[in-house]
UniProtKB/TrEMBL annotation:
<dbReference type="Pfam" id="PF12682">
    <property type="entry name" value="Flavodoxin_4"/>
</dbReference>
<dbReference type="GO" id="GO:0010181">
    <property type="term" value="F:FMN binding"/>
</dbReference>
<dbReference type="InterPro" id="IPR041183">
    <property type="entry name" value="Cyclophilin-like"/>
</dbReference>
<protein>
    <recommendedName>
        <fullName>Flavodoxin-like domain-containing protein</fullName>
    </recommendedName>
</protein>
<dbReference type="InterPro" id="IPR008254">
    <property type="entry name" value="Flavodoxin/NO_synth"/>
</dbReference>
<dbReference type="Pfam" id="PF18050">
    <property type="entry name" value="Cyclophil_like2"/>
</dbReference>
<dbReference type="GO" id="GO:0016651">
    <property type="term" value="F:oxidoreductase activity, acting on NAD(P)H"/>
</dbReference>
<feature type="compositionally biased region" description="Low complexity">
    <location>
        <begin position="22"/>
        <end position="39"/>
    </location>
</feature>
<keyword id="KW-0732">Signal</keyword>
<dbReference type="InterPro" id="IPR029039">
    <property type="entry name" value="Flavoprotein-like_sf"/>
</dbReference>
<dbReference type="InterPro" id="IPR029000">
    <property type="entry name" value="Cyclophilin-like_dom_sf"/>
</dbReference>
<feature type="domain" description="Flavodoxin-like">
    <location>
        <begin position="85"/>
        <end position="239"/>
    </location>
</feature>
<feature type="signal peptide">
    <location>
        <begin position="1"/>
        <end position="18"/>
    </location>
</feature>
<feature type="region of interest" description="Disordered">
    <location>
        <begin position="22"/>
        <end position="53"/>
    </location>
</feature>
């Protein structure tokens, strides 16, 4: 019965993909949706797109799988006749890749292409057959090795085309290879009219340690080229537009925060107080935990620029407190910030914060400019 349903779905898919092709053909080239330069390469890459362009403090990863990037289409393939490519300003994109880029335009972050070692066939029926075989056998196709450091991110978008009402097996390869514990996971997908299927549920089940799995967005392939507005609206609905603002705030000069043997990444802001304190780097402070939310320690200098005090904090904030004459790193409880005195954010720890849960007693923490 399942086989018959699958075969029927494949037939329906072929018809709907033919429909999709003619719609793509009639899509005008959009100048509004022009993609960032780093995304315009039509050749598959094996790693994060342009990792050197990542800004310090940028903690959003947009990982995607797209057939257009995982099948060996000839270089001169015509996007207007291919089901799995979107044409924009003369550049060809995988459908899901295009959606990944729309997300990046809104929230920033790094884009990572998930690529299988063995490319998929370019023939639709052959991909359908291979996918069914992989699903039936629970195969996790091997992924191209990459230098992706997942610990650098606290929010991970996972993008994919719907294959047989689920995510392709390569997505589950990615989820089993990279540890998304403690991270916010956000699925998004493209499809040919049948929606996200069981993909959201199965992805959530594959990341049991995730801090949260937010509502996904599914866009029909024929609507992806005009998807800027629905993507922006969805990001607003799930609160990711605020996250983008935090990212901008997290931009500054790259620093390291050394806690015992562990070196964390961070930034120090471009504010008068932060610049004043940066003068004392490398700065080692004996810090102690308080309230399961912060490590703090006294300093022996008296800064003059003390604007911007607040009684709230974000996890990862590095702050100076005039009243207690100390610096602190906040690592938990941003949802319930019960501070009795003002703190002034001067920077942010951008690495995973879980180390602070494991510390006990006094610990020397060194703040230094990154080399
Ligand atoms: C093997 C295979 C199975 C598919 N199964 C479905 C499906 O179950 N439901 C659906 O709506 N679209 C299905 N599609 C269509 C793709 O989800 C759709 O074309 C998608 O936008 C392609 O994205 P990509 O270019 O990023 O690969 C299937 C496509 C392929 C190749």
């Amino acid at each position: 019965m399942k086989k018959i349903a699958s075969a029927l779905l494949a037939v329906v898919m072929m018809i709907s993909m033919a429909a999709c092709q003619s719609q793509e053909q009639s899509q005008p080239e959009s100048s509004e949706s022009s993609m960032p330069q780093s995304q315009t390469n039509t050749q598959p890459e094996s790693s994060i797109a342009a990792p050197e362009e990542s800004t310090a403090g940028n903690r959003i990863l947009i990982a995607y799988f797209s057939l257009g990037r995982n099948a060996e289409y000839p270089d001169d393939v015509d996007a207007s006749t291919s089901a799995s490519l979107v044409l924009d300003n003369g550049q060809q994109y995988g459908t899901t890749e295009y959606m990944a880029n729309l997300i990046q335009q809104n929230v920033g972050g790094d884009v990572h292409m998930i690529q299988t070692v063995t490319p998929y066939p370019t023939d639709f029926d052959a991909v359908v057959d291979q996918n069914h075989a992989e699903m039936d056998a629970g195969t996790l196709p091997e992924l191209v090795e990459s230098d992706l450091d997942i610990s650098q991110y606290d929010t991970v978008f996972i993008g994919y085309p719907i294959w047989a009402t689920n995510a392709p097996q390569a997505i589950f390869s990615f989820l089993s290879e990279y540890d998304l514990s403690g991270k916010t996971v956000i699925p998004f997908c493209t499809h040919d009219g049948y929606g996200a299927g069981s993909s959201y549920t199965d992805i959530a089940a594959a990341v049991p340690g995730a801090a949260q799995v937010l509502d996904g967005l599914a866009i029909e392939a024929s609507d992806v080229a005009g998807g800027a507005e629905p993507v922006a609206q969805w990001l607003q609905e799930i609160g990711m537009d605020k996250k983008a603002e935090e990212n901008v705030q997290a931009e500054g000069t790259a620093i390291t925060i050394t806690v015992g043997d562990t070196v964390l990444d961070g930034v120090i802001y471009d504010t008068a107080l932060a610049k004043e304190i940066e003068e004392y780097f490398p700065l080692t402070i004996s810090m102690v935990g308080f309230g399961s939310r912060e490590y703090y320690g006294g300093v022996d200098f008296y800064p003059e620029n003390l604007e911007g005090g607040q009684k709230t904090f974000e996890n990862g904030d590095i702050t100076y407190c005039e009243a207690h004459h100390n610096m602190a790193i906040f690592y938990a409880q941003t949802d319930d910030p019960v501070l009795s005195v003002d703190v002034i954010p001067i920077g942010k720890v951008t690495s995973d914060l879980s180390i602070f849960n494991e510390l006990s007693g006094n610990v020397d923490i060194t703040f230094a400019l990154a080399e």
